[in-house]
Each structure stands twice: as structure tokens, then as C-alpha cells.
Amino acid sequence: xxxxxxxxxxxxxxxxxxxxxxxxxxxxxxxxxxxxxxxxxxxxxxxxxxxxxxxxxxxxxxxxxxxxxxxxxxxxxxxxxxxxxxxxxxxxxxxxxxxxxxxxxxxxxxxxxxxxxxxxxxxxxxxxxxxxxxxxxxxxxxxxxxxxxxxxxxxxxxxxxxxxxxxxxxxxxxxxxxxxxxxxxxxxxxxxxxxxxxxxxxxxxxxxxxxxxxxxxxxxxxxxxxxxxxxxxxxxxxxxxxxxxxxxxxxxxxxxxxxxxxxxxxxxxxxxxxxxxxxxxxxxxxxxxxxxxxxxxxxxxxxxxxxxxxxxxxxxxxxxxxxxxxxxxxxxxxxxxxxxxxxxxxxxxxxxxxxxxxxxxxxxxxxxxxxxxxxxxxxxxxxxxxxxxxxxxxxxxxxxxxxxxxxxxxxxxxxxxxxxxxxxxxxxxxxxxxxxxxxxxxxxxxxxxxxxxxxxxxxxxxxxxxxxxxxxxxxxxxxxxxxxxxxxxxxxxxxxxxxxxxxxxxxxxxxxxxxxxxxxxxxxxxxxxxxxxxxxxxxxxxxxxxxxxxxxxxxxxxxxxxxxxxxxxxxxxxxxxxxxxxxxxxxxxxxxxxxxxxxxxxxxxxxxxxxxxxxxxxxxxxxxxxxxxxxxxxxxxxxxxxxxxxxxxxxxxxxxxxxxxxxxxxxxxxxxxxxxxxxxxxxxxxxxxxxxxxxxxxxxxxxxxxxxxxxxxxxxxxxxxxxxxxxxxxxxxxxxxxxxxxxxxxxxxxxxxxxxxxxxxxxxxxxxxxxxxxxxxxxxxxxxxxxxxxxxxxxxxxxxxxxxxxxxxxxxxxxxxxxxxxxxxxxxxxxxxxxxxxxxxxxxxxxxxxxxxxxxxxxxxxxxxxxxxxxxxxxxxxxxxxxxxxxxxxxxxxxxxxxxxxxxxxxxxxxxxxxxxxxxxxxxxxxxxxxxxxxxxxxxxxxxxxxxxxxxxxxxxxxxxxxxxxxxxxxxxxxxxxxx
Length: 980
Known about the structure:
Blueprint: H1 2-17, H2 19-48, H3 50-58, E1 63-67, H4 81-89, E2 93-103, E3 105-108, H5 122-126, E4 142-145, E5 155-158, E6 169-173, H6 174-180, E7 187-191, E8 196-205, E9 258-259, E10 273-276, H7 278-285, E11 293-298, H8 304-316, E12 322-325, H9 327-334, H10 338-372, H11 374-382, H12 387-423, H13 436-462, H14 482-502, H15 507-540, H16 542-548, H17 559-562, H18 564-592, E13 604-609, H19 615-622, E14 627-642, E15 657-663, H20 665-670, E16 679-682, H21 685-694, E17 697-701, H22 702-708, E18 715-719, E19 728-737, H23 741-747, E20 760-764, H24 765-771, E21 779-784, H25 790-801, E22 808-811, E23 815-818, E24 823-828, H26 829-872, H27 874-882, H28 887-923, H29 940-967, H30 970-979
Parallel strand pairs: 4-10, 6-8, 9-22, 15-20, 17-19
Antiparallel strand pairs: 1-11, 1-12, 2-4, 2-11, 3-7, 5-8, 6-10, 7-8, 13-21, 13-24, 14-15, 14-18, 14-21, 16-19, 17-20, 18-19, 22-23
Helix pairs in contact: 1-12, 2-10, 2-12, 2-13, 2-26, 3-9, 10-12, 10-13, 10-18, 10-26, 12-13, 14-15, 14-28, 15-18, 15-28, 18-26, 18-28, 18-29, 26-29, 27-30, 28-29
């Protein structure tokens, strides 16, 4: 104990001799601790509110009963009336409230003189005031139909729904009121596939901030298929035939349109909800709502768990099977929601970043301390101090810096959280708190970082021999020591692209090797390349900077390479955050390209929902102002499941359906100015168009060719949604590049039955109409006249759509639906491009914030490096001042060294970012969600922002050392250098 006390006092005395370095190091730990708490505090708040939010979700009810979800893509399931009657007859049940849920688009009606416009969002651009469709995410509140006489949740403002059938009123949740800026008395516009109505807000009720995750329900079907060989390639020139169970049904066209209603994605009750009476829900939706959830209130004399035990087996045996959802189920589901998982991932990412920050900042400080105190440690060894004691000195110093910085970070972030909750609540997610999770996780981060950072400096210190105390000779730098490291680093860095693009292996092995071997090897390779990049920047860029600043180039010729390892440590420290930023930007914008709609698309896709349009209506469309009358093409579109027969579905095809576009081949592909100007990857335009005109052929996209293995001449089969006993087979006549088909199909309404889809397929319109039983034309592709206003064209399409008002269509799983107000949806290609750019910028920059914060924290290590460099050269600076070097030249010399370190970090980060981003794009084809050809985009404008920030932080770090050295007189510099 006495020995430990002595070593601690020794460390504290040394820190008092160099307070600036210790202070900067502790500030770095404070900043990294704050970064962890900033992210983790929101997660802690969510965890602490699980119980409260679970109670809010159930409201005044004890249990929920809902159908168990079927396979992804299956029809919606409902609660049968006999079950409702059984529950009402149970003496333990106080109340049964059957509710139904549906997706609608919700818009606040703007009063006269009120400003409604605000910055457009990505989803707002492509959804807007249009009915919801399959494919598009549910961005609007869920419409809940309820007969409950009393409010299921606490009324915050106004009142609950009245019992009058004539009342046109609505109650909204407090989340909806906040998002839409609603108050009691405002008017809401509700738009569905069947109607467009306006209702008055009469009340606002309390809501849980999110709904629990009650299952792992997907949003698209998995591929289906048996065992055996894939459909084989037929003889050249042989036309594929359509095989059906009933050939006589080939010409039978269904008299009504069949559509899949937009999926709700919520197995329980939606938290983001609006409430109406059942009669109003029927008017809005166009059909009588069937209950899909039961809210159950149990009598006080009955224990809810006992009730659940009695009913659980009875519910499971029903068809469809039902599940009983109690408080514990909701509580567990709250822990597995997507938002909670996202915040948990962000917390771990922040922890990893902060750990690296602590390691490199403390490591930089300790390493420079060991280098400067070599003679001191040698003298301590000479006076009988053991190697273990020397190592203990380094370890205690590391732990002391870390603990002080950690405590300072806790205090600082507690103050920030307190201020933020009261004055700037938008800073944090929810009621962010400094909980035990924050304290423990940040403490663990700092502890691991300090121990890891102390290992190498302690090892170096123990290798110092006592005789080094008598030596004053400065070891000359090993000029070529970096060469073998550079060769090794280059070889290791090349391993990752080889794994991604060259080495043959299964997708599972490639994913595992990339995640756990190749990516870490790339990081090690960058460490090996760092010294070579420093020497490169010193020899190539250094002379230009010195000349620009008016300094003799010989003064900086070997400054960085003389202290190569110190400079390498500073460069690597900066490169942690900057390298991750560069790789994120490169990967993000490279992945964006195949999702951005290309020039092959016409200007607009029009969908007449839900009943379609006749030939007279198509002629009217051609005559509209703003429409190019010569470039309007009717389409036959259906979304159909694949039929792989006895073969296994291809492993990389993760969805079980495709969207078929029936087109006029000559109009679409054949003229000098084709409406759909696609690039052929395999096959040629002339033979493919001829095959489509003959019938029984199709074109597939390049990404689907890569994921499925289908090639020109292969057959692919489908099962029509309206005739599941039939099989439709087409032969692949060509493979075309279709960048951006994903988002165009996502929001345009062409995903008629399933939320997710695998690809887009072109075929002859006559074939698609006949084979998939499509009686009416629902979609048109067209070009607009130059300068045409998209909103005006869409408005002029509405009277054409409303000619079919009052007609019915068949909704999958619901039966006949009456369309009171049909709608024409115009999806402009340029609008989709703008929306995806906004969405991509939000997502990519959202992922880039943490690396940039890490970069800012790491800049503190540069300040330490500059201080150490100035301290080690004090005598040298004194001699230079004595022979005529001016103060300004010394200041510029320090600035030049700092800028070169920043440039070295930029080059190293650029190399890492390009390789990691490129490999990340290549790995996307093996992840099961994208299989297109890899694109490589270098967003120079965005990368330059990160590089400029790096140089700016380096300049900022050099201000105080440069100012201090510039103020000192030559004699003071010589005296200080001699003492050092």
C-alpha cells in the first residue's frame, strides 16, 4: 500500500510539471464520455419508461386478443363474431371492444390566411395528399374504428366520440396532434383508396410513444420453391408456352379489378392513431370494417393471469389462431421495437468510438511522455526501481487521467442534460436521463481505453536500461524503417477487396470472413501504411506548403520522419473519425446510384385507382394540357408470385414476387426515340423486341439476373393472383439495366398485392392482360411537355378518374369495396429523384455525425502532439532565433508541421474510405437485399468538408503552442531547452 501511495504521488508530481498535456488529455476523455452519454441517455430513458408506456398502450383495458400473423404477404386476418360472442358471455369479462384498423392518408385542413407550406420531406413529395399504397411505408396515423362508449385512453383535451351516427367527428392521439399541429376544433382530411372525407377533431387522447413489436412479421414474401433443378433453358428459338390447370380459363377475364389493400404493419393496436365510429370507417374505407383486435376489460374479482391461462389454449386452437396479449407481452415487445434496437445500436457504436478515442488520446500522451522522459526512467532504474514499478507508473498515470476525465464528463453531461431538458428539449430523444446505464457504460469505456492505451508505453518504458541515463546522444532516425511496414500494409489492405470481389466462396462464408477477418485486416493495413503516407506527404506536399508560407524548405525536410512514430500516432488518431466518415460517405452515395431513377424512365407514371380507365379516358389524357400526346402508352401491370416448380428458389432472391409491366414493344423499345430507352446488358434490342411482339417472352433487370442466375433463353413462371391454379411462363429475351426501379415501383401503386418485390419485368401488354386477367387499363406511362407543371397535370387527371365513381373493386381478403371517389396518382420521375436525394442525404449524414464528433474529440490528441514537438525542439528553436530566424517564421514552422499531420490524416483516411466504401458496396450483393452491379461514386464535395474540418482542427490545435513559442525570447528558449 505504501509503495502504491508513493507511485501515485510520483505520478501526480509529474503531471503537475506538465499540466497542459494532462489537461488536454483529460478534456479528451471528458469529450468522449459526453459523446457516450449523449447517445446512451436516450436509450436509458426508453428503458426506464417501458412499464409506463406499456400501461399507456393498454389504456383502461387489461388484455388484447388479435389473430396471429400469417406468412409474409398473406391476406389480413380478422376476429370472428362467434369469438366476440363467447367472450361477452364470459362472466369474468367486463367489456369487449372490437376495433378495426386501416391505412389512410391524413392531412390537416388549412384555414384561410394560414401558412401551411414548409420544407418538403422525401416521403411527403412522393406520397403527398394521395391515397396510401402498398410498397410505401405508413407515414400517416392509422385509422381505428371503435364502438367504445368511453375513451380507451385518458382524454387530454376535448371529449370522446359521441354515439350519434350523424356526427362527423374524429378523436386523435396526442402524438398525432403534436405532429400535425392539431387542436380541438380543427378539421382533418382523410384520403383512402375509396373516398376523401373531412372530419372535425373533437378530442385528443393520451398515447404510448410507440407500439410494441409483437412478432417478427416481414413486409414481403420469402421465395418459395421445392427441391430439384432450376427451370432449364429451352432449345433456341422455341417459344415458351403458358401452362395452366384449366386451359379453357385462358381467355376468361375477371369482371372486377382485384387489389391488395395497403398493409397496416401493426399486429396489435397502432400507437400513432386516429379514432372514428364504425359507420364513418365504412364510408372512409368503402367497406364494412371487420375487427382485427379485441380490447378486453376484466372484472376486478378476476385475476388477469388466470383468465389468460384459461383462454390461451382455446384461442390457439381457433382458425385463424389467436394470441392473447397481456402487460408482460407488451412490456417484452417494447424492448424489441425497431427504435429501441436502433438506439441500442447507436449506443454500442458510440461506446466503440469513445473507447477508440480514449485509447488513442491517452496512448498519444503516454507515448510522448515515455519518449521525453527516457533519461528520467533510466535514472529511476539506476536507483533500484524495478521494471514492474516503472510499468505501474505508466499504468497509474493512464488510469488517473481516465478517471478524472470520466468524472468530469459525467458532471459536464449532467449539466448539459439538465439544461437541455428545460431549455432545448429537442436536443435529446424523449426524457434523456443520466442513468446507471450511462454511468456504467461510459466508465467501462474509459477503463478499457486507459488499460489498452497504457500497455505499449509501459512495455517501452520497461525496456529502458539504466545506462541510458549516462547517454546524451540522440539516436538518428531509421530512414527506411517505414518501407517494410508499407509493403505489409499494402498487402493486408489488398486482402479485403480480394475477399469481396475475387476469391470464390459461398455468400455465408464471404459475409463472415468480411465482417470478422477482412475488415479488421484492412484496419491493420492502414496502420502499416501510415508511416509511408506521412513520408510521402512530407516529401511531396511539404515543400509547397513551406514555400507558400515563406519558410526555407530545409527546415521541414525531415521533421515528420525524424519523429515518425509520434507523427504516425497523431495521424492514426485523426484518421479514426475521418476514415469512418470517408467510408460512410463513399459507401452511401455509391449505393445511392442504382436506386436513383435513370434516364430510361418516361417523365411520369399515372395510376387510376382503383378501377382503371377506359379507351375514351386514355384519349382524354392525351388531350390534356402539359401532356405530350404522342408519348402516352397504356400499360398492363400486375404483381405476381414466382412459381419455381420443383426447384429451390435462388438463394439471393429474397422476395417471392415480381411486378410485370405489359407494354407495347414497338412503342416502348423500337422507335428512334423509344419511350422506355433501356440499355441492353445481354441480348440485343431488335431480337428482344421481335420476341416480345411474338408473345410469351419478357425482359428482366440486370440486378435480378445477377441474383437469380436467369439468362437469355431461360424460362420463368408466375402464379396469377386471381387464378392461383394457373401457371404463366415467359422466356427471357433480354436483360436490361433498370436503375431506380425500386423507388418508382415503391410509391406509384404498381405493387398491387405485396409490400416488397424482387424485380421489375417487361412483357407484351396483350400477354399480361390475358394471362393475368386484367380487364381494365389502370396505368399509363407518358412524357410531359417541356415546362409542364406536374401538380396541374395531376389535378386535370382527377375528373377522368372520377368518371368511375361508385364502381366496386375486389380487395384481397376483404371482398367488394365501393370507390366513392377514385383517384389518379401521378408519379413524376423527377419528383422521385428529388425525394430519394433528400432521403439519402438525411440517412447518410445521420450516419456521419458520430464519426465527425469522434474526429473533433481526436483533434485534442493533435494538440498534445504539437506541444510535445515544440517542447522537444525548444533548444533548437532558441538556436534558430539566435541566428536570425524571426518569431513569425517559428510560428509558421509550427503551423506547417501541424498542417502536414492533418494532410497525412486526410490522405490515409481517403485511402481507407475508398477501399472500405468500395468493398461495402460489393458486399451488398451478398447481403440478401441488393444484387446489382457495384457502383463506385466518390462524393468529393462531401469528403472535402471532412478534410477541411480536419485541417481546421489541426490549425486550431497549433494556435497556443505557436503563440507561446513565438513570444519567447532566444535566451529563454535556450535556457528552457537546456533544462529539458
